[in-house]
Amino acid sequence: MPVWMQTAALLTLSNVFMTFAWYGHLKSLNTKPWIIAALVSWGIALFEYLLMVPANRIGYTELSVGQLKIMQEVITLAVFVPFSVLYLQQPLKLDYLWAGLCMLGAVYFIFRS
């Protein structure tokens, strides 16, 4: 499997954990004290880091730090939008499309050389 694909796969899995760690408590732990939500989030974030660190190390063998960061941000948006709509029941807004188009521009500029 190419390095970029391994990196993207690990970053995607990492982002699923990150999104739940950062935002999942808004729905599932909203009646609990914030310290409980923080501790649960830290527990989930451990799995994020167990995937993020290898993803960046693998990616850095062929990609620049800028390319890794833009890849991460695109994946973050791609994971966050469905999470927001499906799990948090937030409305799908046209602004997500505009943000995605801006991210495509960033991908173009960071990967063009």
From TrEMBL:
Keywords: Membrane, Transmembrane, Transmembrane helix. It comes from the Bacteria. The chain crosses the membrane at residues 34-53, 74-90, 96-111. InterPro entries: DUF486 (IPR007437). The keyword Membrane applies. PANTHER family: DMT FAMILY PROTEIN (PTHR38482:SF1). This is Transmembrane signal peptide protein. It comes from Metapseudomonas furukawaii (Pseudomonas furukawaii).
